[in-house]
Amino acid sequence: MLPLIKPPHSAFRLRYTGPVGVSGVGVQQTWDLTVLPEAVRATRDFKQSVLVFVQQIDSGVSAVASAVSFLPVTGTPTTLVLTLTASGVSEELALDVWYLHTLEGLAAGSQAYFIAKASAPSAPAIGTTNVARLDSVLGNDATAAVGSDIPFKTMQAAVNACKAAHDALGPVDSAARFRSGYVIDPAPFTQYDEDVTIDVTNGFHLQITGRGGWMLGVFDAVNWAPNAVSNRSITITGDSRALTEDIRPSVIIGSLDATPYFGTNHLAWYGPRIAGQLKIDLVTGGQPLSGHCEIGLNCEIFGNTFAECVDMTGKNPIITLQIINSRFRKAANFGTASNIFGAIRSRFSGLLTTNTWATFDICRFQAGFTCTGDVAAFPPAGFFSCGMAGTFTGPAGKFLRLDLASNTSLVEGGNVIVGWTKKLLNDATP
Predict the structure, then answer these.
(1) Looking at the chain, which terminus has fewer C-beta neighbours within 10 angstroms, N or C?
(2) What single DSSP character describes residue 222?
(3) What is the DSSP string of 342-383?
(4) How far is CA 111 from the centre of its chain?
(5) Residue 91 to residue 163: CA distance in whole angstroms
């Protein structure tokens, strides 16, 4: 149900911009009239004014009021129901309806009436370039577009539209493709029961970063957890080779709300949550077949019905990761060609696997860490204020760099180091 808008110096404004149907198959919209005092809604003047509104709409677009829902013989209307139609199913409608007098004047029997107009949709809002709105409740895949305020209904449709816009920028491997990026903006706390595939071929840069939490899968279990059989996943696929100047494709999954101030115990407060897995299915085989994909994560991944919450799909591509305020409910296996340059305030409930690593800050390891490579050259390298549990395995002759708090956790828990030589960062002795 759409709300009435109450602008300054006017009783209210009724506005709708969006899809309409063809004649006989209209799109029904309902406005809530209860914001208006009952004394106003009960007046004959009010009811007649809305009829004027209906009659004044241009002949190219019609809005038919429902006699059952809107104009009862007796009583006070609480809703306005219009069935919106146009000459073509792809057309859109912009209605702007103002009541230009005060509520008091209307209640007193003023003869003023609504001013209504039907026109082309308004220009895209400033700030929507390269942005795809997403709303599983109010969205419409048939009429939404990148750069429009009309949201998509499904995440995959929004991803596909962004990829199509990216591919239209220029020929394969052109700088125009690699030097562009897109943002999908999910409506806060909306849910998407679908699997999503993101093809990063030709330098595609995509951020799925809403203004609040959003959910991939069905989250209806206790403590707002995913349904026991819900395993909707995001797959990153395609050819991730970089441009000559080393511009790499990238995917960021996160939230713009409250990051990075909240921790990982209740990511439902603000962050994206994925019921299934993050699947990395990039082309492998070396340049020019594959390259180096950058991935940023600020989310919670459950791995529901799977053994791991991160799955390399039997491949081992090069990926670089930045992880902030994330939680991995099961093993996070990023493969032996991955690089974790930074993980902040994140929680790994299963075994974490990577190649090189740099900094873990205020992280919690509950099932150990396996590293096949060395510390990356991104200082400050080490574990800082981390909770350490499990077996920590690394190459012989390489250092496991720990600050005092992380080492205390490691020792008190009786945890095991395999291969690595422990180096305490609070000891500066050569």
Answers:
(1) C
(2) G
(3) EEES-EESS-EEESEEEEEES-EESS-EEESS-B-S-SSPEE
(4) 48
(5) 24
In this structure, are residues 214 and 189 in contact, taking their beta carbons and an 8 Å threshold?
A: yes
Structural element, H or E, at residue 331:
strand 331-333
Report residue 420 as tokens: 């690595």
Tokens of 230: 């819900």
Q: Which long-range contacts (CB under 8 A, 24 or more apart) does 311-316 make?
A: 311/277, 311/278, 311/279, 311/280, 312/280, 313/235, 313/279, 313/280, 313/281, 315/280, 315/281, 315/282, 315/284, 316/284
The pair of structure tokens assigned to 15 is 């506005």
Q: Which pLDDT value is given to residue 355?
A: 93
H/E stretch holding 50: helix 44-56
pLDDT in tens, 23-32: 444 556 666 6
100 is written with which tokens? 């230009």
Please list, residue by residue across 211-244, b when 16 or more beta carbons sit within 10 angstroms of its beta carbon and e when fewer do: ebbbbbbbbeeeeebbeeebbbbbbbbbbbbbbe
DSSP assignments along 72-100, one per residue:
-SSS---EEEEEEEESSTT-EEEEEEEE-
Q: Among candidates 225, 201, 231, 211, which has minimal Cα distance to 134?
A: 211
**What are the angstrom distances between the C-alpha of 286 and each of 103, 146, 197, 321, 371?**
71, 33, 22, 19, 22
Mean pLDDT of 94-119: 39
Residue 292: CB atoms within 10 A of its CB come to: 19
> Over the chain, what is the mean pLDDT?
77
Number of alpha carbons in the 13 Å side-chain half-sphere of residue 225: 11
Burial 344-356, CB ≥16 within 10 A → b, else e: bbbbbbbbbbbbb
- The residue behind tokens 């496991």 is 400
Q: What is the distance, to the nearest Å, from the Cα of residue 420 to the centroid of all Cα atoms in its chain?
A: 39
3-state secondary structure of 427: coil
Cβ neighbors of 59 (< 8 A, separation 6 or more) are: none
Give the whole-angstrom CA distance, residue 55 versus residue 121.
20
Tell which wins on pLDDT, 305 or 52: 305
pTM: 0.72
Each residue's pLDDT tens digit, 331-344: 999 988 899 999 99
Quote the pLDDT of residue 336: 87
